[in-house]
């Protein structure tokens, strides 16, 4: 992602801030692209920080390009000590995790970093990389709502 002034992205955030119907449509699209539980909490943080919609829209093609083998979902880290964060949890099988996955995630984070800063979302947005076994047990994540479920690979 070019380090530019992000004029188009800022204009879209302004449109989301001004138009609740547009926000709801875009949020529904996010819900289709990034599965999640706790609808009310994730809707609340996205509504309060509408730039998250723009970030998720930018993250989706990067995830598809760099880690197409990974499973992705959203979670809300609502630790009372910190501000709530929207976590994009990206899971890969242990063998992928140990074979370049972390480098791919670092690349995605670096491509999004300038936009995250420009939209002032450095506290609210985080990509959490984790691994799982073929049986779905998370081996590295403390933030995993679907511990008993499989790695949902498409």
Question: How do the helices and strands line up, and which of them pair or pack?
Answer:
Elements: H1 7-18, H2 20-33, H3 39-48, H4 51-66, E1 71-77, E2 85-93, H5 94-118, E3 125-132
Helix pairs in contact: 1-2, 2-4, 4-5
Q: What would you note in describing this structure?
A:
- The protein has five helices and three strands.
- It is α+β, with helices and mostly antiparallel strands and 154 residues long.
- Strands 1-2-3 form a three-stranded mixed beta sheet, covered by helices on one side.
- The longest helix is centred in the last third of the chain and has 25 residues, at 94-118.
- The protein is globular.
- Residues 136-150 have low confidence and may be disordered.
């Amino acid at each position: 992602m070019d380090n530019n002034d992000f004029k188009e992205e800022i204009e879209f955030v302004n449109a989301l801030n001004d138009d609740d119907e547009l926000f709801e449509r875009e949020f529904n699209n996010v819900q289709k692209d990034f599965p999640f539980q706790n609808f009310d909490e994730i809707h609340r943080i996205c509504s309060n920080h509408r730039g998250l919609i723009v970030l998720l829209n930018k993250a989706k093609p990067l995830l598809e390009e760099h880690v197409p083998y990974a499973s992705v979902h959203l979670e809300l880290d609502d630790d009372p000590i910190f501000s709530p964060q929207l976590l994009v949890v990206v899971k890969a099988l242990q063998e992928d995790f140990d074979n370049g996955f972390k480098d791919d995630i670092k690349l995605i984070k670096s491509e999004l970093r300038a936009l995250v800063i420009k939209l002032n979302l450095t506290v609210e947005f985080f990509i959490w990389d984790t691994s799982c076994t073929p049986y779905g047990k998370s081996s590295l994540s403390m933030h995993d709502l679907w511990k008993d479920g499989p790695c949902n690979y498409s």
